[in-house]
Amino acid sequence: xxxxxxxxxxxxxxxxxxxxxxxxxxxxxxxxxxxxxxxxxxxxxxxxxxxxxxxxxxxxxxxxxxxxxxxxxxxxxxxxxxxxxxxxxxxxxxxxxxxxxxxxxxxxxxxxxxxxxxxxxxxxxxxxxxxxxxxxxxxxxxxxxxxxxxxxxxxxxxxxxxxxxxxxxxxxxxxxxxxxxxxxx
Length: 185
Description:
Layout: H1 2-29, H2 37-62, H3 70-92, E1 95-121, E2 124-138, E3 144-149, H4 151-156, E4 162-169, E5 175-184
Antiparallel strand pairs: 1-2, 1-4, 2-3, 4-5
Helix pairs in contact: 1-3, 2-3
């Protein structure tokens, strides 16, 4: 029985590492000017190679409990770790000598209505709607970068105005946004 509890705790820790790595990767992606599929493709190849080595370790950690899940779990763990390493190295090891100011035009403003649910009691849930505000900026190479804004910032920005961004080249020569100025010009 102690072995089963240990395996469940280790699976929980592995799952927590995966969730945190993917969450931080998504956060750093918002500061990186690249399509989402390019880092995913780059990180999938080494993750696939490491999967077969890591599957044995995962099998040893989880035991016979997760017999059919060891390869997918090993792939997801290695992929999320490589993706976090990619975005972290690209952002934090950017070259300050390549810093330049870019005036990005606001192409579009829009809002999305979302719903969140709260549990009130055992069988009772309450849903409430809220609004999230976005702007889309056009970068110099034609890419569109979506940014979330507060209501006050959203109301102050006009379509066609320009946002001042400080860009640097990252370690992998992918541009990163170091500073965002909400005042439009």
